[in-house]
Amino acid sequence: MNSLFTPLSWSDSGLILTGVWNTIIISVVAIVVGTVLGLIVGFLRAESNKAVNVLFGSVLDVLRSVPLIIQLILFSTFVGAMGNPLAPFVAGSIVLSLYTMAFMSEVFRSGFESVSPSMQIAARSLGMTKWQTIYHIRLPIGLRAVFPSWLGVSLSVIKDSALVSVIGYMELLRTSEQLISRTQQPLEILIGVGIFYFIISYPLSHYGRYVERKMAI
Amino acid sequence: MDYEFHWNVVFQNMPQLLNGAFVTLHVSVLAMLLGVVIAILLAIAKMNNTKFFSQVATVWVEIARNTPALFQIYMAYFGLGAFGIHLSPYVAVLSALVFINAGYLTETFRGGFQSIPSTQYSASKSLGMTSIQSYRYIILPQMLRRIYHPMTNQFVWSILMSSLGILVGMSELSGTTQRLQSLSFRTLEFFIVAAVMYFVITKLVLFGSSLLARRLFKGEI
Q: Can you give the residue ranges of the ABC transmembrane type-1 domain (chain B) (predicted)?
């Protein structure tokens, strides 16, 4: 008798690979955009006076204190209600990038603030212009100091990208969920998915801890 | 803009939303408490010289830290079904959160413990304190000070992550929101209110934690 469910077969690998690819692409977009925006916002926050800081800080605070899943649903229904629905990839990338930016800006701000003022004064007294000081002194020293935290945020973005599935983006976890409902083999599929995330995340998190230890000495 | 906001239906359903918020708080408090207990055991196991115990702890920590929370929840909800274990959404989300909290807190505890130089233990022993006294009065208070902030962050994180219950049909804040909006089709209104409620809960928890810190540590942290 034919069963209602068809088991997992090699022909499903295309679907799984699409999911893997979609997870990678949205994570890369979010990390790149989030890093660039975070760098700008972090620098502005390190530079600006208290009033601007409070304003920036409270907006970023909202992005950090509302669950990502709620932000995703809110944003995609909002643009839908406004009459121009976005593709899941676009909506997901925007929300995930802004979410990443909120965390990255804190990382970079602490990096910029870790460069001591006397070092900047020294650079200025050597005849560097303001931009040269930023480019040759503050950026390299500040960024090097926060590399492990940057890596940590990036890894959590890769893991959080799984949540974009709620607005219909076919990333790895959603493709696996669909395969589960067809094959009724949840354990095999989920373990495969887990291994994928683990393979990406484990070496990088170890590398981050290694760099951190090396810098601490 | 041709979208009209209708807030009435949201206010009518406020009791249900508040109930959902209560479930959110309650699952994250429980996940935190159980997570702390397991993390203490795992941290002890990880520093143990018996290879078996430290390896079990390491495997737990690495899996919890390197896979998405949603994956853990799916694993608890769908994956365990393969062994004939069918958890309710509440238990599935709770166990996933406990698993992850324990994984992250183990490293926090171990780091906190190892940051206290062992010479302090020797010093307190040489002052005539017993083992228990030196832990109670010297080691643990300092350790608590160092792990307090990471623990607060972990708690906030579990409040935010319990929102994933929406995907397995749990009736915490976002699950309730989802159910109510599907009855009334006022998606935006309901999720805006849910977002505000999460924000308020997070802020209240952070505020409460800083009050407690002031009492516990007398301002020096």
A: 21-209
- Residue to mutate among A5, A65, A187, with most B CBs inside 10 A, is A65
The predicted pLDDT at position B219 comes to: 55
Any idea which architecture B8-217 has in CATH? Orthogonal Bundle (1.10)
Closest listed residue to residue B109, CA positions, set B41, B161, B58: B41
pLDDT, residue B203, reads 93
* Domains of chain A, first to last: 13-216 (1.10.3720.10)
| CA–CA distances in Å: residue B185 to residues A50, B6, B108, B179 | 42, 10, 43, 10
User: How many residue pairs from chains A and B have C-beta atoms closer than 8 A?
Assistant: 102
Could you tell me the residue ranges of all domains in chain B?
Answer: 8-217
> How many CB atoms neighbour CB B38 within 10 A?
19
Structure tokens, B131: 């083992």
Place of tokens 């069918």: B86
What are the chain B neighbours of A163 within 8 Å (beta carbons)?
A: 68, 70, 164
pLDDT in tens, A55-92: 888 889 899 999 999 999 999 988 888 888 889 999 99
Neighbours of A92 (CB within 10 A): 27
